[in-house]
Structure of Glycerol-3-phosphate dehydrogenase [NAD(P)+]:
Amino acid sequence: MRIGVIGGGAWGTALAQVAAAGGEETLLWAREPEVVEAVNLRRENSVFLPGISLSTAIRATDALDDLAGCEALLVVTPAQHMRRVLAGLPALAVPLVLCSKGIEEGSAKLMHQVAHEAQPAAAIAVLSGPTFAHEVAAGLPAAVTLAIADQAAGEAVAARIARPNFRPYLSDDLTGAEIGGAVKNVLAIACGVVEGRGLGQNARAAIISRGFAEMTRFGLARGARAETLAGLAGLGDLVLTCSSTSSRNFALGKGLGEGADAKALLADRKTVAEGAFTAPVLRQAAADAGVEMPIVGAVCDLLAGSASVDAVVENLLSRPLRAEGL
Ligand SMILES: NC(=O)C1=CN([C@@H]2O[C@H](COP(=O)(O)OP(=O)(O)OC[C@H]3O[C@@H](n4cnc5c(N)ncnc54)[C@H](O)[C@@H]3O)[C@@H](O)[C@H]2O)C=CC1
Ligand SMILES: O=C(CO)COP(=O)(O)O
Protein backbone atom coordinates (compact mmCIF):
# COMPACT_ATOMS: atom_id res chain seq x y z
CA MET A 1 0.00 0.00 0.00
CA ARG A 2 1.55 3.28 -1.00
CA ILE A 3 -0.74 6.02 0.27
CA GLY A 4 -2.53 5.74 3.58
CA VAL A 5 -5.46 7.87 4.70
CA ILE A 6 -6.21 8.19 8.41
CA GLY A 7 -9.90 8.96 8.89
CA GLY A 8 -12.84 7.53 6.97
CA GLY A 9 -15.13 10.54 7.14
CA ALA A 10 -16.28 12.39 4.03
CA TRP A 11 -12.97 14.17 3.41
CA GLY A 12 -10.70 11.20 4.11
CA THR A 13 -12.79 9.11 1.74
CA ALA A 14 -12.72 11.80 -0.96
CA LEU A 15 -8.94 12.09 -0.64
CA ALA A 16 -8.58 8.32 -0.86
CA GLN A 17 -10.54 8.55 -4.10
CA VAL A 18 -8.13 11.24 -5.38
CA ALA A 19 -5.11 9.12 -4.45
CA ALA A 20 -6.60 6.02 -6.07
CA ALA A 21 -7.47 7.96 -9.23
CA GLY A 22 -3.73 8.20 -9.92
CA GLY A 23 -3.44 4.44 -9.75
CA GLU A 24 -1.97 4.48 -6.23
CA GLU A 25 -2.97 1.56 -4.04
CA THR A 26 -4.67 3.36 -1.18
CA LEU A 27 -5.35 2.18 2.35
CA LEU A 28 -8.14 3.98 4.23
CA TRP A 29 -8.24 3.66 8.02
CA ALA A 30 -11.72 4.17 9.44
CA ARG A 31 -12.86 3.93 13.04
CA GLU A 32 -16.24 2.50 12.26
CA PRO A 33 -16.44 -1.18 11.27
CA GLU A 34 -19.52 -0.38 9.17
CA VAL A 35 -17.47 2.08 7.09
CA VAL A 36 -14.72 -0.50 6.57
CA GLU A 37 -17.27 -3.08 5.51
CA ALA A 38 -19.18 -0.75 3.20
CA VAL A 39 -15.99 0.44 1.45
CA ASN A 40 -14.56 -3.06 1.02
CA LEU A 41 -17.75 -4.88 0.10
CA ARG A 42 -19.88 -2.27 -1.66
CA ARG A 43 -17.29 0.33 -2.74
CA GLU A 44 -19.22 3.11 -1.06
CA ASN A 45 -18.83 4.98 2.23
CA SER A 46 -22.56 4.99 2.83
CA VAL A 47 -22.09 6.47 6.32
CA PHE A 48 -20.14 9.66 5.54
CA LEU A 49 -20.03 10.02 1.74
CA PRO A 50 -23.09 8.28 0.32
CA GLY A 51 -23.75 8.11 -3.39
CA ILE A 52 -20.11 8.07 -4.55
CA SER A 53 -18.81 4.94 -6.20
CA LEU A 54 -15.29 4.35 -4.87
CA SER A 55 -12.25 3.10 -6.76
CA THR A 56 -11.30 -0.55 -6.46
CA ALA A 57 -7.76 0.65 -5.63
CA ILE A 58 -9.02 1.67 -2.17
CA ARG A 59 -8.94 -0.85 0.65
CA ALA A 60 -10.32 0.03 4.08
CA THR A 61 -9.09 -1.20 7.46
CA ASP A 62 -9.90 -0.55 11.10
CA ALA A 63 -6.37 -1.53 12.23
CA LEU A 64 -3.99 1.44 12.53
CA ASP A 65 -1.04 -0.97 12.42
CA ASP A 66 -1.86 -1.77 8.77
CA LEU A 67 -0.69 1.76 7.86
CA ALA A 68 2.90 0.93 8.83
CA GLY A 69 4.04 0.14 5.28
CA CYS A 70 2.59 3.28 3.61
CA GLU A 71 4.97 5.72 1.94
CA ALA A 72 2.90 8.81 2.75
CA LEU A 73 -0.02 9.36 5.11
CA LEU A 74 -2.89 11.81 4.74
CA VAL A 75 -4.25 12.64 8.20
CA VAL A 76 -7.96 13.48 8.11
CA THR A 77 -9.36 12.92 11.60
CA PRO A 78 -11.41 15.69 13.19
CA ALA A 79 -8.93 18.17 14.67
CA GLN A 80 -9.70 17.37 18.31
CA HIS A 81 -8.84 13.68 17.79
CA MET A 82 -5.63 14.11 15.82
CA ARG A 83 -3.18 14.04 18.74
CA ARG A 84 -4.56 10.80 20.17
CA VAL A 85 -4.76 9.03 16.81
CA LEU A 86 -1.21 10.01 15.78
CA ALA A 87 0.18 9.11 19.19
CA GLY A 88 -1.37 5.65 18.75
CA LEU A 89 0.83 4.93 15.73
CA PRO A 90 4.41 3.66 15.96
CA ALA A 91 7.09 6.35 15.36
CA LEU A 92 6.73 7.38 11.71
CA ALA A 93 9.38 8.68 9.32
CA VAL A 94 7.08 9.08 6.27
CA PRO A 95 5.54 12.47 5.37
CA LEU A 96 2.30 13.30 7.17
CA VAL A 97 -0.08 15.47 5.16
CA LEU A 98 -2.53 17.10 7.57
CA CYS A 99 -5.94 17.75 6.03
CA SER A 100 -8.02 18.62 9.11
CA LYS A 101 -9.12 22.16 9.91
CA GLY A 102 -9.10 23.28 13.51
CA ILE A 103 -7.25 24.47 16.59
CA GLU A 104 -6.68 22.12 19.52
CA GLU A 105 -8.89 22.86 22.52
CA GLY A 106 -6.90 23.55 25.67
CA SER A 107 -3.50 24.08 24.04
CA ALA A 108 -4.60 26.46 21.22
CA LYS A 109 -2.05 24.63 19.06
CA LEU A 110 -2.36 24.26 15.32
CA MET A 111 -2.47 20.77 13.85
CA HIS A 112 1.11 20.89 12.56
CA GLN A 113 2.30 21.66 16.09
CA VAL A 114 0.18 18.83 17.49
CA ALA A 115 1.41 16.39 14.82
CA HIS A 116 5.03 17.36 15.42
CA GLU A 117 4.64 16.64 19.14
CA ALA A 118 2.95 13.29 18.48
CA GLN A 119 5.31 12.21 15.66
CA PRO A 120 8.57 14.20 15.95
CA ALA A 121 10.45 12.31 13.21
CA ALA A 122 7.87 12.82 10.45
CA ALA A 123 7.97 15.64 7.88
CA ILE A 124 4.71 17.58 8.20
CA ALA A 125 2.67 19.15 5.40
CA VAL A 126 -0.69 20.92 5.53
CA LEU A 127 -3.27 20.49 2.76
CA SER A 128 -6.10 23.03 2.89
CA GLY A 129 -8.38 24.90 0.54
CA PRO A 130 -11.91 25.20 -0.86
CA THR A 131 -12.85 21.54 -1.25
CA PHE A 132 -16.28 20.14 -0.52
CA ALA A 133 -15.65 16.40 -0.20
CA HIS A 134 -18.54 15.29 -2.42
CA GLU A 135 -17.32 17.45 -5.35
CA VAL A 136 -13.72 16.26 -5.05
CA ALA A 137 -14.82 12.63 -4.78
CA ALA A 138 -16.92 13.07 -7.91
CA GLY A 139 -13.81 14.22 -9.78
CA LEU A 140 -14.81 17.90 -10.16
CA PRO A 141 -11.91 20.39 -10.40
CA ALA A 142 -10.41 21.78 -7.20
CA ALA A 143 -7.22 23.52 -6.06
CA VAL A 144 -5.56 23.48 -2.63
CA THR A 145 -2.64 24.98 -0.77
CA LEU A 146 0.02 22.41 0.15
CA ALA A 147 2.25 23.93 2.81
CA ILE A 148 5.51 22.31 3.89
CA ALA A 149 8.80 23.74 5.12
CA ASP A 150 11.13 21.81 2.79
CA GLN A 151 10.58 22.73 -0.85
CA ALA A 152 12.01 19.53 -2.34
CA ALA A 153 9.86 17.41 -0.03
CA GLY A 154 6.88 19.58 -0.99
CA GLU A 155 7.48 19.04 -4.68
CA ALA A 156 7.63 15.28 -4.10
CA VAL A 157 4.36 15.25 -2.13
CA ALA A 158 2.67 17.57 -4.64
CA ALA A 159 3.67 15.29 -7.53
CA ARG A 160 2.29 12.35 -5.60
CA ILE A 161 -1.16 13.79 -4.93
CA ALA A 162 -1.73 16.09 -7.94
CA ARG A 163 -4.32 14.86 -10.45
CA PRO A 164 -5.69 16.52 -13.60
CA ASN A 165 -8.63 17.83 -11.53
CA PHE A 166 -6.82 18.27 -8.20
CA ARG A 167 -4.13 20.96 -8.15
CA PRO A 168 -1.90 21.57 -5.14
CA TYR A 169 -0.18 24.98 -4.96
CA LEU A 170 3.00 24.87 -2.86
CA SER A 171 3.69 27.16 0.07
CA ASP A 172 6.02 27.07 3.07
CA ASP A 173 3.55 28.86 5.34
CA LEU A 174 2.00 26.07 7.43
CA THR A 175 0.68 28.52 9.99
CA GLY A 176 -1.14 30.60 7.37
CA ALA A 177 -2.64 27.56 5.64
CA GLU A 178 -3.93 26.23 8.95
CA ILE A 179 -5.25 29.48 10.35
CA GLY A 180 -7.18 30.12 7.12
CA GLY A 181 -8.95 26.75 7.33
CA ALA A 182 -9.63 26.92 11.07
CA VAL A 183 -10.95 30.49 11.17
CA LYS A 184 -13.14 30.20 8.08
CA ASN A 185 -15.12 27.43 9.77
CA VAL A 186 -16.15 29.82 12.54
CA LEU A 187 -16.99 32.56 10.04
CA ALA A 188 -19.09 30.09 8.02
CA ILE A 189 -21.22 29.58 11.13
CA ALA A 190 -21.72 33.36 11.28
CA CYS A 191 -22.76 33.46 7.61
CA GLY A 192 -25.19 30.61 8.23
CA VAL A 193 -26.74 32.65 11.03
CA VAL A 194 -27.20 35.56 8.61
CA GLU A 195 -28.97 33.20 6.21
CA GLY A 196 -31.12 31.55 8.87
CA ARG A 197 -32.21 34.88 10.35
CA GLY A 198 -32.94 36.32 6.88
CA LEU A 199 -30.51 39.23 7.21
CA GLY A 200 -29.77 39.36 3.49
CA GLN A 201 -26.89 38.99 1.08
CA ASN A 202 -25.36 42.38 1.85
CA ALA A 203 -24.93 41.31 5.46
CA ARG A 204 -23.36 38.04 4.37
CA ALA A 205 -20.82 39.88 2.18
CA ALA A 206 -20.06 42.20 5.10
CA ILE A 207 -19.40 39.20 7.38
CA ILE A 208 -17.13 37.59 4.76
CA SER A 209 -15.10 40.75 4.39
CA ARG A 210 -14.94 41.82 8.02
CA GLY A 211 -14.40 38.18 8.96
CA PHE A 212 -11.46 38.09 6.59
CA ALA A 213 -10.07 41.15 8.40
CA GLU A 214 -10.35 39.18 11.68
CA MET A 215 -8.66 36.15 10.11
CA THR A 216 -5.85 38.34 8.82
CA ARG A 217 -5.31 40.17 12.14
CA PHE A 218 -5.15 36.87 14.03
CA GLY A 219 -3.04 35.15 11.38
CA LEU A 220 -0.45 37.93 11.28
CA ALA A 221 -0.25 37.89 15.08
CA ARG A 222 0.51 34.15 14.97
CA GLY A 223 3.15 34.51 12.25
CA ALA A 224 1.11 33.70 9.12
CA ARG A 225 1.75 35.53 5.85
CA ALA A 226 -0.98 37.77 4.42
CA GLU A 227 -0.61 36.24 0.95
CA THR A 228 -1.42 32.77 2.32
CA LEU A 229 -4.53 34.07 4.06
CA ALA A 230 -5.63 35.74 0.81
CA GLY A 231 -5.12 32.45 -1.06
CA LEU A 232 -6.94 29.14 -1.43
CA ALA A 233 -6.66 28.08 2.21
CA GLY A 234 -7.95 31.40 3.54
CA LEU A 235 -10.13 33.64 1.43
CA GLY A 236 -10.83 30.90 -1.12
CA ASP A 237 -12.23 28.52 1.47
CA LEU A 238 -13.97 31.35 3.32
CA VAL A 239 -15.95 32.29 0.21
CA LEU A 240 -16.87 28.64 -0.45
CA THR A 241 -18.10 27.76 3.01
CA CYS A 242 -19.83 31.07 3.65
CA SER A 243 -22.04 30.59 0.60
CA SER A 244 -23.54 27.12 0.75
CA THR A 245 -25.49 24.74 2.94
CA SER A 246 -23.11 22.05 1.64
CA SER A 247 -20.91 23.43 4.44
CA ARG A 248 -21.71 21.73 7.75
CA ASN A 249 -20.55 24.87 9.56
CA PHE A 250 -22.81 27.11 7.48
CA ALA A 251 -25.71 24.68 8.02
CA LEU A 252 -25.11 24.73 11.79
CA GLY A 253 -25.19 28.54 11.75
CA LYS A 254 -28.36 28.52 9.66
CA GLY A 255 -30.03 26.41 12.33
CA LEU A 256 -28.92 28.86 15.01
CA GLY A 257 -30.23 31.76 12.92
CA GLU A 258 -33.58 30.00 12.63
CA GLY A 259 -33.75 29.90 16.41
CA ALA A 260 -32.78 26.29 17.13
CA ASP A 261 -30.99 25.47 20.37
CA ALA A 262 -27.19 25.18 19.95
CA LYS A 263 -26.84 22.16 22.25
CA ALA A 264 -29.60 20.29 20.44
CA LEU A 265 -28.12 21.09 17.03
CA LEU A 266 -24.68 19.85 18.09
CA ALA A 267 -26.01 16.72 19.82
CA ASP A 268 -27.85 15.79 16.64
CA ARG A 269 -24.74 15.68 14.45
CA LYS A 270 -23.06 12.56 13.06
CA THR A 271 -20.67 14.67 10.98
CA VAL A 272 -18.23 17.22 12.33
CA ALA A 273 -18.78 21.02 12.30
CA GLU A 274 -15.23 22.00 13.31
CA GLY A 275 -16.09 25.66 13.84
CA ALA A 276 -18.07 24.79 16.97
CA PHE A 277 -14.89 23.39 18.60
CA THR A 278 -12.55 26.01 17.17
CA ALA A 279 -14.62 29.08 18.13
CA PRO A 280 -14.02 29.13 21.93
CA VAL A 281 -10.31 28.29 21.73
CA LEU A 282 -9.89 30.83 18.93
CA ARG A 283 -11.60 33.54 20.98
CA GLN A 284 -9.25 32.82 23.88
CA ALA A 285 -6.16 32.68 21.64
CA ALA A 286 -7.13 35.99 20.02
CA ALA A 287 -7.61 37.61 23.42
CA ASP A 288 -4.21 36.28 24.53
CA ALA A 289 -2.65 37.78 21.39
CA GLY A 290 -4.45 41.11 21.89
CA VAL A 291 -6.40 40.66 18.64
CA GLU A 292 -10.03 41.78 18.29
CA MET A 293 -12.32 39.17 16.70
CA PRO A 294 -15.88 40.40 17.30
CA ILE A 295 -17.56 38.07 14.79
CA VAL A 296 -15.81 35.07 16.31
CA GLY A 297 -16.93 36.29 19.74
CA ALA A 298 -20.53 36.55 18.52
CA VAL A 299 -20.43 32.95 17.24
CA CYS A 300 -19.08 31.82 20.63
CA ASP A 301 -21.96 33.53 22.45
CA LEU A 302 -24.51 31.89 20.17
CA LEU A 303 -22.95 28.45 20.55
CA ALA A 304 -22.86 28.85 24.32
CA GLY A 305 -26.50 29.96 24.31
CA SER A 306 -25.50 33.07 26.26
CA ALA A 307 -27.01 35.58 23.80
CA SER A 308 -29.81 35.66 21.24
CA VAL A 309 -29.22 36.15 17.53
CA ASP A 310 -30.80 39.60 17.68
CA ALA A 311 -28.62 40.62 20.62
CA VAL A 312 -25.35 39.57 18.96
CA VAL A 313 -26.34 41.30 15.71
CA GLU A 314 -27.18 44.50 17.58
CA ASN A 315 -23.91 44.25 19.43
CA LEU A 316 -21.92 43.91 16.19
CA LEU A 317 -23.77 46.79 14.54
CA SER A 318 -23.27 49.13 17.48
CA ARG A 319 -19.51 48.76 17.70
CA PRO A 320 -17.68 52.10 17.39
CA LEU A 321 -17.17 53.24 13.80
CA ARG A 322 -13.60 52.73 12.65
CA ALA A 323 -11.32 52.86 9.63
CA GLU A 324 -11.57 49.85 7.33
CA GLY A 325 -7.84 49.02 7.27
CA LEU A 326 -6.58 46.38 9.70
N1 LIG B 1 -16.01 17.24 4.50
C1 LIG B 1 -15.34 18.15 3.82
O1 LIG B 1 -15.80 18.60 2.76
C2 LIG B 1 -14.01 18.62 4.30
C3 LIG B 1 -13.56 18.35 5.59
N2 LIG B 1 -12.34 18.81 5.99
C4 LIG B 1 -11.84 18.53 7.33
O2 LIG B 1 -11.57 17.14 7.46
C5 LIG B 1 -11.68 16.74 8.83
C6 LIG B 1 -12.53 15.49 8.90
O3 LIG B 1 -13.83 15.84 8.45
P1 LIG B 1 -14.75 14.86 7.61
O4 LIG B 1 -13.95 13.86 6.87
O5 LIG B 1 -15.66 15.71 6.83
O6 LIG B 1 -15.55 14.08 8.77
P2 LIG B 1 -17.08 13.63 8.76
O7 LIG B 1 -17.89 14.68 9.41
O8 LIG B 1 -17.50 13.18 7.42
O9 LIG B 1 -17.03 12.35 9.68
C7 LIG B 1 -16.77 12.41 11.06
C8 LIG B 1 -15.42 11.77 11.29
O10 LIG B 1 -15.08 11.88 12.66
C9 LIG B 1 -14.49 10.67 13.06
N3 LIG B 1 -14.54 10.54 14.50
C10 LIG B 1 -15.62 10.66 15.31
N4 LIG B 1 -15.26 10.42 16.58
C11 LIG B 1 -13.92 10.17 16.56
C12 LIG B 1 -12.96 9.84 17.56
N5 LIG B 1 -13.31 9.72 18.85
N6 LIG B 1 -11.67 9.64 17.18
C13 LIG B 1 -11.30 9.76 15.88
N7 LIG B 1 -12.17 10.04 14.89
C14 LIG B 1 -13.46 10.25 15.24
C15 LIG B 1 -15.31 9.63 12.33
O11 LIG B 1 -14.64 8.39 12.32
C16 LIG B 1 -15.38 10.28 10.96
O12 LIG B 1 -14.22 9.99 10.23
C17 LIG B 1 -12.26 17.95 9.57
O13 LIG B 1 -11.22 18.61 10.23
C18 LIG B 1 -12.82 18.83 8.45
O14 LIG B 1 -12.80 20.19 8.77
C19 LIG B 1 -11.53 19.52 5.16
C20 LIG B 1 -11.91 19.80 3.87
C21 LIG B 1 -13.19 19.38 3.34
O1 LIG C 1 -13.75 22.71 4.67
C1 LIG C 1 -14.66 22.49 3.90
C2 LIG C 1 -14.62 22.88 2.49
O2 LIG C 1 -13.39 23.42 2.12
C3 LIG C 1 -15.89 21.82 4.38
O3 LIG C 1 -16.60 22.74 5.12
P1 LIG C 1 -17.57 22.25 6.27
O4 LIG C 1 -16.72 21.50 7.26
O5 LIG C 1 -18.18 23.48 6.82
O6 LIG C 1 -18.56 21.34 5.62
